[in-house]
Amino acid sequence: MRSSPRSKPDGPRARAAIVRDENEASREAYVDEVRFMVIPDTAAAETALFAGELDVLPDLESSRVEEAKSRGMTVLSTQDLSWTAILLQTKDPLLSHAKMREALAHATDINQIAAARTNGVATGDPSAVAQASSFFDDEFLKWPEYDPVKAKALLDEAGYKGDPIKIQTNTRYQGMYENAVLLQAMLTAAGFNAQLEVLDWAAQLGNYLAGKFQIQSFGYSARLDPSLMYGVILGDKATDPTAQWDSKEALDLYTKSMATTDPAQRKALFKQLHALMAKHVPILGLYYEPSVDAVSPKVKGYSVWPAANPRVWGVWKSE
To answer: Bias regions of kind Basic and acidic residues — which residues (predicted)?
Structure first.
């Protein structure tokens, strides 16, 4: 992202503008023009930033943070609202068995996957309520604990005979691929016959839309309210193949969360939803992607936003 300066705030005016932006949601503009440049290649985008051809590079890979800092860039990060998850097809003959899904949960170390993928920036979060949400507290971290021994015992109880379980993923989105590789290793260690099925993104997305998978490595874009995230994963699989959680009880709780504006009541409903999800295990939430932006030191007043979109009000550029 490249900006053209209009005016450079100085002295008291600059300080007042920053305070209003933080505390009063001021949207004062200090630049005449903001130009968004589409650079599909990550390495080329980083090179453009380091060369001064870009002012802001959103969505910096966590593994590239130290390199960006060494090049004199300012790196800003915050908890995001984009949920990275493992989808489970509960209509699949194997995964329709509750003990199989419970075994999957016990076999998956979400904190290890989060740390490996985000270079320690994010922590595991199995809930549809993000840590960046005002509704979040530690109740939303309760989930079947990582316990490969217990996972193997549950597989025995379920009568699992080593049938292959395929994890669909792609290499267009590196995070999805890396998460699938880590998941495969963990499931294999717990006794699953887990196999990777690497597709092009269009094919994987088509399978998601049609519900044609056993397991998928996936990610949901940011939703500003937990009800919106629950609304994405809940539904009737008979009419909506993208629904991951087909539960009348959960749908009733979700509907109530949409019908009330009282924050305390909504939080209580979200807690009930999460406890029910931990019992049913219709999906494996891994973590929320951190928002990590690399910014030229000439850019002033810029901050990252949990919704993962660049915002440039209250921002200016020094000469």
So the answer is: 7-22
H/E segment holding residue 87: strand 83-88
Q: Where are the alpha helices (DSSP H) in the chain?
A: 11-23, 42-50, 65-70, 98-107, 110-118, 148-158, 174-189, 201-210, 226-233, 248-259, 263-280
CA gap 155, 41 in Å, rounded? 43
Give residue-wise pLDDT tens across range 13-57.
332 222 233 434 567 878 888 888 888 787 888 888 888 888 888
* Whether this model's pTM surpasses 0.85: no
**C-alpha dist (Å) from residue 33 to 13, 264, 285, 298:** 21, 42, 39, 16
Collapse the DSSP code of 279 into the 3-class scheme (helix H, G, I; strand E, B; otherwise coil) and give the result: helix
Residue 281 to residues 104, 112, 118: CA-CA distances in angstroms?
Answer: 9, 19, 24
What is the C-alpha separation between 297 and 189, in angstroms, rounded?
Answer: 46
Concatenating the DSSP letter of every residue in 34-68 gives: EE------HHHHHHHHHTTS-SEE-S--GGGHHHH
Query: Cβ-count burial of 307 within 10 angstroms (0-12 exposed, 13-18 middle, 19+ buried)?
Result: middle
